[in-house]
Amino acid sequence: MLKITDLNVAYGEVQVLWDVNMEIHESEVVALIGANGAGKSTLLYTISGLLKPKSGSIQFNGTEIAGLPADEILRLGIGQVPQGRHLFAGMTVKENIMMGAYLRKDKQKVKEDFDFVLDLFPRMGERLNQPAGSLSGGEQQMCAVARGLMAAPKLLLVDELSLGLAPLVVENIYNAVEKVIQRGMTVLIVEQDVFLALEQADRAYVLDVGRIVMSGPADELMENPRIKEAYLGI
Amino acid sequence: MESLQFTQGIVNAILLSGTLALVAIGFSIVWGILNIINLAHGAFLMVGAYITYWLFTLYGIDPFLSLPISMAIMFVVGYLVQRYLINMVIRAPLLVTFLLTFALEIVIINLATFFWKGDLRSVTPDYAGLGFSLGNVQVPYVRLAAFFISLILTGLLHVFMTYTKTGNAIRATGMDIDAARLQGVRIPQTYALTYALGTALAAGAGTLISISFPIDPTMGGAYTLRAFVICVLGGLGSIPGVMMGSVVFAFIEVFSGIWFPSLKDAIALLVLVLVLIVRPSGIAGKAFYH
Ligand SMILES: Nc1ncnc2c1ncn2[C@@H]1O[C@H](COP(=O)(O)OP(=O)(O)O)[C@@H](O)[C@H]1O
Ligand SMILES: [Mg+2]
Fold this sequence. Notes:
The structure holds 2 protein chains of 2 kinds. By secondary structure, chain A is α/β, with parallel strands linked by helices. Chain A has helices spanning 40-48, 70-76, 93-99, 107-120, 122-126, 137-149, 167-182, 194-200, 218-223, 225-232; strands at 2-11, 14-24, 29-33, 55-60, 63-64, 78-81, 155-159, 186-191, 203-208, 211-217. In chain A, a hairpin with a 2-residue loop joins β4 and β5. Chain B is an all-alpha fold. Chain B has one domain (2-278): ABC transporter involved in vitamin B12 uptake, BtuC (Orthogonal Bundle), CATH 1.10.3470. In chain B, β1 and β2 (137-140) form a beta hairpin. In chain B, α5 packs across α6 and α9 (220-234) packs across α10. In chain B, 50% of the residues are buried. Residues 286-290 of chain B have low confidence and may be disordered. At the A-B interface, α2 and α3 of A face α6 and α7 of B. The site of adenosine-5'-diphosphate (ADP) has 11 residues of chain A, from β2 and α1.
């Protein structure tokens, strides 16, 4: 579904990603793990078209998307829940969620999806007319996931959903993600909470200072002594 | 006598606040969403006024009927100016776009002076001088009509921004540009559309102003300054804030004109300095789009 080949990305002169290769198959859940500053968010921004790569290729279902405008990449079916939520703080929860469906013309399906995300996060239903900026951290994250789902992407990229949230809230949000996965959505999970990510994923990649240093089935990585030591603190 | 002047002042201030709101609202969306302090705003207003003047003088088109024409023409002009001129430097620091719109203002005014001369001109339909009296207070029909049209246009903009997909995309872009891109909003087009709306609103205000007051190529500068002060008063990017700022400003302007006539031209600057000292975030509180 997604095939990244020899991808190099830089901010101006400062290169952040080096020869990244990665593959995601349909209906797969893939985790991308790595320390703070490794380049995970940079990779997601590049996939979504917010950053242009220096070189390399990103293919999505056979189409070259590296360097395409963000709206065309979304239209092809790659959606993202960015790190830090990036809600539209002055808009209501409902307006935020509906912005996710900005490009969609299938009104009936949009309505169904709206009901689905409210089912997933009943708390959002109670807050529909509140400004998103007034929500608690956990509620903001739910709103961001709901907005991401409203694009009905084929591949959903989620970035650090657990960041700064209490364990119970994190569990609540990942339960929702699990339901989405069960419906067959392909998901790339980026997490600093490595245990959480590996628990969800079929396969995983480890990014270290801009390079993929390890990859494999999630359960194998979970048992890998280097992973255990470096990321799981066991 | 004192009390008549006072009542007339209140009526005049209310009538003025409508026009000022229309001028300021376009200035405000461009500032709030594109982060551009658009010094050319008043120049677009002036061109709108001249479009109405020429349509009336050459073709006898009623000035109120020319409102949609002047707005539509300047909408297109605004779109092209943003898309193909300002867009080139949109990522540049605020000062660069500031200077660019300053240059744009000068060019437009010079062209207008060259082609249309610097003379004062007036749009004078048959009904121009008509009005009615409330007791001894005079209310000109054209100013009353201009007031209501300003309110309607401002209300329409509010509805557009709040209830349409495109309006929401504009607001979203002003609040978080990366997040807007991730929802599929195309930024160059959205910026151009926002600038076009601001320009059309300026032109609409110019049309309405030309029916009540004489016009000349330099008329716009004073309106740009007032729009700026109103945005600071009302808080950036909030339509209700701009309405409130316009009312406050209109009352200050009219009554300072009555009580201290010699201060008339300095009043906008004085208010600005006072607001910045007393309440730097504006009286309506925080910027809404940021
Ligand atoms: N906008 C930016 N400009 C310059 N450098 C950046 C920018 N964003 C991130 N970086 C740098 O790129 C590196 C990777 O950052 P990021 O992709 O956010 O890592 P991660 O998501 O894995 O924590 C870091 O060294 C960070 O400082
Ligand atoms: Mg990150």
